[in-house]
Write a structure and sequence with these properties.
about 50% strand, five-stranded mixed sheet, mainly beta, four-stranded antiparallel sheet, Neuraminidase
């Protein structure tokens, strides 16, 4: 008989009502989780010890923040990257020269072990594959791939020989061969195909076994896939639209999950009271830690 699929149930981690929660990021030095409300233009901080949530207004829509090696944050504003801090209100653009086209917007991203920031872009109209994947190395940005419609979920295998990437429209999880020394990706191939299912793959994270955890919008779960695309485990989520995931906690075995509540009616919100909240689940395999940007 086939092995029964392991199911874990997510629980409330931090209460909030994000319109579009995104970019959960664990800060190990602070024992805290940061995340974004992209539509609400806010950055949140949740203290894991006390459960206290604080928030910061942002001047623009932002997809995520990334820790830097000089203790600043790199803000992925949708129209440009900039340095700032949680406690301050000034932002220093990464570059004075636009690096993406007028119709493109920055979205998800992460750093490799050499401190380079990799990020994807998307079509603001969600209609055409005009986006790409970019590498930011010591302030200089170069394009590594093209033909992307809605970039999400960019993470690596434990040995950094593979880079995973989700294009949420029409919905595929891809993998590239990754050359760390050359900062190059190639040989893209399909891992999971969601097209035609109504499910949209969103943010993802990878663990020490080399498996990929990905938020499945409209499926009420986060799914763990093996590198060959086999469904291995699921975290059931009490709302239809989980958006992104990140590992944290002292042992990196806590999976944090952001969700969204935008566009929901009062009746729908009553049925899904945790829509827009940050959830968490304890898993058996530790996640890979997130590297800091080398500023």
């Amino acid at each position: 008989m086939p092995n029964k699929l392991l199911e874990i149930t997510a629980e409330l981690a931090f209460q909030c009502r994000n319109q579009l929660g995104e970019g959960p990021l664990w800060h190990p030095d602070e024992n805290a989780l940061y995340w974004i409300d992209l539509i609400g233009k806010k950055l949140f901080r949740g203290d894991a010890s006390s459960g206290k949530v604080t928030e910061k207004d942002l001047p623009y829509r932002c997809a995520r923040v990334t820790l830097c090696d000089d203790d600043r944050m790199l803000f992925s504003f949708t129209r440009g990257l900039a340095f700032g801090t949680y406690g301050g209100d000034s932002y220093q653009p990464l570059s004075d020269t636009p690096v993406i086209a007028d119709g493109e917007r920055f979205n998800d991203g992460a750093c490799d072990s050499l401190g380079r920031f990799w990020t994807g872009t998307y079509d603001a109209q969600l209609a055409s594959p005009i986006g790409g994947i970019y590498c930011v190395d010591a302030g200089k940005t170069s394009q590594a791939a093209t033909g992307v419609r809605l970039a999400n979920g960019l993470r690596w295998s434990p040995d950094e020989k593979l880079m995973y990437f989700a294009d949420s429209r029409p919905g595929q999880l891809w993998v590239y061969d990754f050359d760390l020394d050359a900062a190059r990706i190639d040989n893209r191939r399909l891992v999971v195909d969601y097209e035609g299912t109504g499910v949209k793959p969103d943010g993802c994270a990878t663990d020490a076994d080399g498996c990929i955890w990905i938020a499945e919008v409209h499926r009420s779960q986060v799914a763990r896939y093996t590198p060959d695309g086999k469904l291995d485990q699921v975290v059931k989520v009490p709302t239809r639209r989980p958006t992104s995931v990140s590992f944290g906690g002292a042992d990196n075995k806590t999976l944090f999950i952001t969700t969204r509540a935008d566009g929901m009616s009062a009746e729908e919100l009553a049925k899904e009271p945790l829509a827009g909240a940050v959830l968490s689940a304890r898993v058996g395999t530790p996640g890979l830690r997130e590297y800091r940007y080398r500023a």
